[in-house]
Structures are given as C-alpha cells and as structure tokens.
Fold this sequence. Notes:
The protein is of the alpha+beta class. The chain has helices spanning 2-16, 35-45, 91-101, 157-166, 218-226, and strands at 22-29, 49-50, 62-65, 68-71, 82-88, 111-115, 118-122, 128-133, 147-152, 172-177, 180-187, 191-197, 209-214, 230-235, 238-245, 252-261.
Amino acid sequence: MTVQTKAVNGLEVAAAEDVGNILALEHVNVTVPDQALAAQFYIVGLGLTRDPYMMVGPENMWVNVGEQQFHLPTRSPQVVPGHVGLVVRDLEALKRRLERLRERLAGTRFAWAQEDGYVAVTCPWGNRFRAYARSERFPGMATGIPYVEFLVQPGTAAGIARFYKQVMEAPATVAKGNEGPVAHVSVGLHQSLRFRETGEPQPPFDGHHIAIYIANFSGPYGFFKERGLVMQDIAMNQFRFKEIVDARTGERLHELEHEVRSLRHPMWGRELVNRDPNQSIRGYARGADALRGAA
C-alpha cells in the first residue's frame, strides 16, 4: 500500500512538470476603429510598446507586452467576452497614467478602478483587463500576458477542458470558483487559457482571435481536418480553427478563433522590444529606455 501511494504521488509530482503541447500564447487580436485612440490607451495608458519593426502604418498596430503582443487591425471593434490578464512592473505608475487619460478618452467606454489585488481597466471599446503587479502568482513574468479568461455557457467547462487535453494535448483541469466552474488550460511555463461559465447572455462571436504555438502540429490539424473544422488551411507554417467541440460527441461548446503555429513559423521566439514607460524628459535616466531582464 505504501509503495502504491508513493508511485501515485510520484506521478503527480511528474505531472506537475509537464508543459504540454501548447508552448506559448503569442498574441491576442482584436480590431479597433481608431488607431489614435488605441495608441492613447495601449501605449500611453497601459504603458506598452508599439512594435518598431512590424505594422507601423495606420492599418494595424502590434503592441508588445513582455514576450506577448496585442494585434490591433483597423476595423469595427471586437470585444473579448471575459478579460485579459496583464502583469506590469509598477501598478502605481499605471494608475497615474490611466487617471491622466480620463479626459482624453471621455465619451468612450474607458474606465479603471482599483480592485482587490489588481487594477481593472476597460478599453475605449469595452475590452476588459486586469493588471497585476509582478509576484509569485505569475512566476517568471515581469511584464506580459499571463492568461486570457473567456466567458462561456453553463455546462461547458468540463468539455472545453477535455477538448484541450485530448485534442490540443495540453494539461487542463476544471475548478469550482466563486464565479462559477472554470476550465484552466496550461500554456507553456507561465501562461494559461481560462474558460469560466456564466449565466449571463453572451454576444455572437465577432472574430477576435489568439495565436498559439504548438509542438505536435500534425495531431491537432488531423483532428480538425477530418471533421471539416479547419477554417484556414496550412499556409506559412500555421492553420486556423474556431470551433471548440466536445472531443467525444462533437458538440460545439464555444467559438474562439485560434491561429495555430508550428515551431517552424518565422515568428517563433522573436525577441520583442519593450520600453520603460516610467522614462520621462524630466527624470530621464541614460541607458534605461528599454526594459531588461524577464521583460
């Protein structure tokens, strides 16, 4: 009996070391109708960094946040049902920047408030964020996107977890939180996807998407191809799907467009430029323009 218990515990310890097939969540893509307002919010307010090398015109903006990005093409606004988690280096400085934006973003849906353990922020078009200070809650991340949480229909969390575990080959569990059951999907070392059940009615899917990198590319692709669920076939080392289905029954559980990239994609491991948003003309420190270390 003792030997069996040790073996089981050993497997649990080993399982905690598993990374899974989804190695990184690279970007969250939501369209915006006004690049100037987007720059005010993401660059001036949140203190993030416009990518200096890619998408520098008015038709799109890539915004660096640690090792992740927001992609913001110019079109009618898309809104993620849920919220995006952010880790920032200085919450107090973030609050000062957001307060200065109130007048500039008046008449939009922009808002912010200090909550218990995080700063809640809403963008001009309704996307919600929770900004946290660097801590052991998100180990290994000084700046970045540790998770994205999506609101889903009641009774779907277990099936969504099963989908990611069986189809995408990612560790996934279901927990009972105060706000309802939530599926947690492990992404690489320091990230996750969350799917929280809610009784609130949700708007129709508007086309927002996430980009992920996977090691076993052919396995998930074969699953979607066999069932006619590939929405964009393989090109430039990636494919796309949007239907999250029950792996056993095929029942559709949620819509979320996934840009699925192999590790041969030219953007895999690309080093992103991140500025220190606390730099200013008055308090300029030579050599401290860029954030260094763990982004």
